[in-house]
Amino acid sequence: MMPEIAPPDAVEFSVRLDGVETKVPYLPGTTLLDSMLACPALKDVPHSCRQGHCGTCMGLLVTGEVNMLCNLTLSKRDLAAGYVLACQSIPLTKEILLSYDD
Amino acid sequence: MTAIGRIDAIWRYPVKGMRGEEVDSVFVGFGGVMGDRVYGVIKEDGEKAFPWFTARDDEPFLLYRPRFKNDGPTIPDNLADFEGLAPGIAPLFPSAEHFAVEVETPEGDVFDIDSDDFLSHLRKRFDAPLKVHLSSGKSQVDCRPLSLFSSNTCKQLGSELDMEVDIRRFRPNLMVTWHGENDMPGFYENTLVGKRLQVGDKVVFTPLERDPRCKMVTLDPDTAAAAPKILRHISTKHEGYAGVYGAVLKEGAIKCGDEISVV
């Protein structure tokens, strides 16, 4: 599935998981989750259906913006709080911090 | 047959996504528990593959309390007569009017589920083009007719997460406790996938697969407050699964206290 809006070039985003912050190179044409799973330090990042349905990969977008291709599980409350689905997110900004500790 | 567990609680969910109703006994048919998910609320502009509106879309939906009017049927009339006619006849189910439901809102207002007033309430409260859907043929379960979750698994998750884990988060039809000579571990039900289990005198069902969990388990059943760490933990420590889905092989009535054995 192609993103509706092209991400900026050379994005490297940060992920906070279990108190550790990891820099992740964004792999063009993929989602944040795909890029995280390609990073050995994040091979156990929470995820399951990869279809935007289960919500397991929902993380708090502390910094930056993303385009979510599909959202079948996040509520208005989740979205207002800043949660995104990593399996459906394409970065829109060069600086992104996604937290799984919040 | 040696009993490996017993049923401690039985739930059905008159409206998919809303609070469940605990019953002492119930008929379990091929389509699931009698009265389970008879109603659902549909998003007219929703995804074709999953049009239901649930607490995933708006958490307070979980706090609505549906109940069958006139108690609602749990066991078909004259069940023994049907079962007594060889080789055992599938009983006549109560007609749709016997499954009439009223819903109490979190604020205490009560509506008939099929009333225009309730539809107006839903659409206004949730700001979405919703409609109520009565299932004519089967329970509106997500995947399989029957879901089972053990108190052993709940206890283990609570220990691992260092928090009280309310089993109602997992919205099972059956809560069972596995027992043996020693304390049975959590997730024992995973080892039963593919086996035939007899419940009580009559019902036989097979756990088909482990139950892949979603955001619903993060929601406190009494407050709808979210605890995402529960789902993350199930994902990272238990491959995303907790509890099992099952298919009914032989219909019949079950009750709390019924023992479970491997056939």
Overview of this structure, please?
The complex is a heterodimer of chains A (102) and B (263). Chain A is an alpha+beta fold. Chain A has a single domain (12-99), classed as Ubiquitin-like (UB roll) (Roll). Chain A is 12% helix and 29% strand. Chain A has two helices and seven strands; from the N terminus they run ββαββαβββ. Chain A has helices at 32-37, 76-81; strands at residues 12-17, 20-25, 58-63, 66-68, 83-85, 89-91, 97-99. In chain A, the strands form two sheets. Chain A has a five-stranded mixed β-sheet. In chain A, strands 4-6 form a two-stranded antiparallel sheet. The longest helix of chain A has 6 residues, at 32-37. Chain A is globular, with a radius of gyration of 12 Å. The mean pLDDT of chain A is 91. Chain B has 263 residues and is α+β, with helices and mostly antiparallel strands. Chain B has a single domain (3-262), classed as Beta Barrel (M1 Pyruvate Kinase, Domain 3). Helix content of chain B is 15%, strand content 31%. In chain B, the strands form four sheets. A seven-stranded mixed β-barrel of chain B has the order 1-11-10-14-13-12-16. Chain B is globular. The N and C termini of chain B lie close together (7 Å). In chain B, 43% of the residues are buried. Chain A binds chain B through residues 44, 46-49, 53-56, 58, 72-73, 75-78, 100, and chain B through 47, 50, 55-59, 212-215, 218, 226, 228, 231-232, 234-236, 240.
Overall tally of structural domains of chain B: 1
**From the 3D coordinates, which CATH architecture of chain A would you assign?**
Roll
Mean pLDDT of chain A: 91
- The CA-CA distance between the termini of chain A, in Å, is 29 Å
Supply the helix-strand structural class of chain B.
alpha+beta
**Which term fits the overall shape of chain A?**
globular
Order of strands, main sheet of chain B, comes to 1-11-10-14-13-12-16
Radius of gyration of chain B: 18 Å
How much beta of chain B, percentage-wise? 25-35%
* Order of adjacent strands in the largest pleated sheet of chain A: 2-1-7-3-5
Portion in helices of chain A: 10-25%
DSSP strand count of chain A = 7
Report the sheet with the most strands of chain A, covering strand number, pairing sense and barrel closure. 5 strands, mixed
